[in-house]
Amino acid sequence: MTRLELTADLPGERCDQFLARTVPGLTRSGAQKLLEAGAVLCGGEAVKKNRKTAPGEVYTVELPDPDPIEALPQDIPLDVIYEDGDVIVVNKPVGMVVHPAAGHPDGTLVNALLYHCGNSLSGINGQLRPGIVHRIDRDTSGLIIAAKNDAAHLSLAAQLQDHSLYREYHAVAVGGFREDSGTVDEPIGRHPAERKKMTIDRKNGRQAVTHWEVLERYSGYTYLKCRLETGRTHQIRVHLASLGHPLLGDVVYGNKKSVPGLAGQCLHAKKLSFVHPKSGERLTVECPLPEWFEAVIKKLRPM
After folding, report:
1. What CATH number did the domain enclosing 256 receive?
2. Fewer Cβ close by (within 10 Å): the C or N end of the chain?
3. Are residues 170 and 114 in the same domain?
């Protein structure tokens, strides 16, 4: 069992919301189950489900040990960019799913990590997502970091929450931008009709901030650098589409016809910078654009 000590920072926040916001990998429904089980204490007493937080209150949360891992190790080649005893950073190829789910029971990054790392992956995110701190889409390539122990996981999750974990993506968007840079600050939520899609939702969505900068301009397309301040599902794809500039190859938020030579959207997680959980030093890792991305740039760039 893992025991966490959490300090409330907002007044009048529902306790299940507070827990889901501060405990990595914990959903609202999971937080409610912990409250119902009496696994959340404040001042030595079990916290009731409808309790509201007050700044400075300290909550003790007892997380049950994760179930035995059901995802099986698979000998899948990994492009490891950085690795030590606490973290591993991998350059994920297009087409690889991050963790097992319905329709993708194996062949995922988690299966590959289990083979590569053995039992040295954090268990906070449960049996199907060991070590996974953040995700990138199946059809997005690039850097993803995984934690090898719970302490590293909590540290990286805290950096995601306070926006100190720097994530830079490169993308090709449809159309031309008037400005050289800008910021999209629009909340994102689940699409009300198409549950596999996300959308701008100013009423119920979660805050999402994307900073973008033009790197090169082509006829009908723009090569961008995007920095995530938050990490919502499909964030860059939704935000750029909301500007009228969907990603090249994005058949969900852009043109429904696939682009020859592209397996997915033209989006690559190129750079990560984080404070190492143990040493406290800031590490920055980068990976080159994949060949398919370079081919797109070469085709679009004027001769």
Report:
1. 3.30.2350.10
2. C
3. no
**H-helix or E-strand spanning residue 114:** helix 109-117
Q: CB atoms < 10 A from the CB of 81, how many?
A: 17
User: Helix, strand or coil for residue 81?
Assistant: strand
Q: Are residues 204 and 261 in the same domain?
A: yes
State the pLDDT at residue 69. Answer: 47
Low-confidence ranges of the chain (pLDDT < 70): 1, 25, 65-69, 102, 127-128, 195
The predicted structure's pLDDT at residue 17: 87
CB atoms closer than 10 angstroms to residue 44: 6
Domains in the chain, number: 3
Name which of 301, 243, 280, 258 is nearest 94 in CA terms. Answer: 258
- Among 162, 194, 214, the domain-final residue is 162
The count of residues in the chain is 303
Judge if 173 and 88 occupy the same domain.
no
225 belongs to a structural domain: yes
Strands (E), the chain: 2-7, 40-42, 45-46, 58-63, 80-83, 87-92, 141-147, 166-174, 181-185, 188-190, 198-200, 209-218, 221-228, 267-275, 282-286
Cα dihedral across residues 214, 264, 209, 9: positive or negative: negative
What angle, rounded to 10 degrees, do the helices at 28-36 and 15-22 form?
120
Indicate if 44 and 88 belong to the same structural domain: no
State which residues form the domain around 105.
67-162
- Rounded to whole angstroms, how far apart are CA atoms 137 and 156? 19
Q: What pLDDT score does 219 carry? A: 95
Q: Is 250 in the same domain as 180?
A: yes
Final residue before a domain boundary, out of 34, 63, 92: 63
Any idea which residues carry the catalytic annotation?
137
